[in-house]
Design goal:
The chain is of the alpha+beta class. 27% of the residues lie in helices and 25% in strands. The chain is built from eight helices and 18 strands. The chain has helices at residues 6-14, 24-41, 51-60, 163-168, 196-211, 234-243, 290-303, 347-363, and strands at 68-69, 75-79, 85-91, 96-102, 108-113, 125-130, 133-139, 155-157, 176-178, 184-185, 190-193, 221-226, 247-257, 277-282, 307-311, 327-328, 331-335, 343-346. Strands 1, 2, 3, 12, 13, 14, 15, 16 and 17 form a nine-stranded mixed β-sheet that branches. Strands 4-5-8-7-6-9 form a six-stranded antiparallel beta barrel. Strands 10-11-18 form a three-stranded antiparallel β-sheet. α2 (24-41) packs across α8 (347-363) and α7 (290-303) packs across α8. The chain is globular, with a radius of gyration of 21 Å. It starts with 5 loop residues before the first helix and ends with a helix.
């Protein structure tokens, strides 16, 4: 690995400082972040069925924003004029399941939509999202004891006893399935829930738009809320193909899977929650040019925004823009227990991320 540049090292050292007590203004910002984030978290949108989340984002946009939906299902807001065009992109979808078949006993056969451990959902409540409304069920406990090395497939029981009875409830192949979820505030500025990935990024873009000084923009800025990220960056691919070589830079606003967890070794992906947004210098899909990481650090310093720098696993929507010559500069936010039913965030990081997006849009 190359030596860390001086400005980046300074930010890494700053991230180790103890958290600062919240001021009255900070409390207002935390409340704003929660008010935007909570309804997004409590909206359901498995990859390929993001409609409810997209509508929630529309309702939370500032009054002046004119949203459009492209043929892929991405939500787009353009602001400012002239070049070079800059893109911010966060994704709408969440991990979950899709029904692949209904058994004779009425149980639902499933396939995963996104990467995660199905065992985290086993023996938990389930929701089948049908055109007639949500149907309650349970992820059936599996035989995972010593008699089997590989558990059988995960299935859902909605209380019926025949294929016909299940179909009568509106459940069919293609129906998406999730676990019920709720945004829950913890002590201080911490919160837990499911699908913070990437409802935090989506919320941060909304907050940045609400606070954006449009008169300060030097060029057009395109905000995108993409679809089907968890199953292969499909919405981002469509957006990148549509924009082509027009953008100069793309900022993927997505999770930084952090080692700030009792389950992880503190040797990789260290970005403590509560210490600010994260410049994602390297992940499995892209390498940010060091000069662009340094530029992010300079913008953060100039605007007094908390920013960390780190490397992590996973991919980001911006990586599919690079074949068109667009520079990918992903900005993340640290998350504990990624892709689990009990993800944990710090609302200070949501504020930091929104401020970082606004600062980049206005000054870079």
């Amino acid at each position: 690995m190359m030596a860390v540049r001086g400005s980046v090292l300074a930010v890494l050292l700053l991230s180790a400082r103890p958290p600062v007590r919240l001021s009255a203004q900070d409390s207002v910002r935390i409340s704003e972040a929660q008010a935007v984030l909570a309804p997004l978290v409590e909206s359901y949108g498995v990859s390929g069925a993001e409609g409810p989340v997209r509508e929630a984002v529309k309702r939370l946009l500032p009054a002046w924003a004119v949203p459009s939906t492209d043929t892929a299902g991405n939500l787009v807001v353009r602001v400012g004029q002239g070049g070079p065009v800059v893109v911010f992109i966060a994704h709408l979808d969440e991990i979950g399941f899709r029904v692949t078949g209904i058994r004779d006993d009425g149980a639902l056969e499933l396939e995963t939509r996104g990467g995660f451990f199905p065992s985290l959902f086993e023996a938990k409540p389930a929701l089948a999202h049908t055109d007639q409304g949500d149907v309650a069920g349970v992820f059936m406990p599996r035989d995972s004891g010593f008699t089997r090395r590989t558990p059988p497939p995960l299935r859902v029981d909605i209380g019926t006893s025949s294929r016909a009875a299940t179909a009568a409830r509106g459940v069919r192949p293609g129906t998406t399935v999730t676990m019920p979820k709720q945004y829950v505030r913890l002590t201080g500025t911490r919160a837990t829930g499911r699908s913070f990935d990437d409802r935090v990024g989506s919320a941060a873009q909304l907050i940045a738009l609400r606070r954006l000084d449009r008169a300060a923009l030097k060029h057009q800025v395109v905000f995108i809320w993409s679809v089907r990220e968890e199953i292969g960056l499909e919405g981002a691919e469509a957006a990148a193909a549509s924009l082509g070589t027009t953008p100069r830079r793309v900022y993927a606003i997505d999770t930084f899977v952090s080692a700030d967890s009792p389950l992880e070794l503190p040797s990789f992906a260290v970005a403590p929650i509560g210490r600010g947004a994260v410049a994602r210098a390297l992940d499995n899909s892209s390498v940010t040019p060091p000069a662009y990481v340094d530029s992010l650090v300079q913008v953060a310093r100039a605007r007094g925004v908390a920013l960390q720098v780190g490397t992590t696993n996973g991919g980001n929507d911006g990586s599919v823009f690079t074949p068109y010559g667009v520079v990918d500069v992903p900005i993340g936010w640290p998350l504990r227990y990624s892709h689990s039913p009990a993800e944990v965030i710090d609302l200070k990081d949501v504020v930091s991320l929104a401020d970082m997006i606004r600062a980049v849009a206005e000054t870079w």
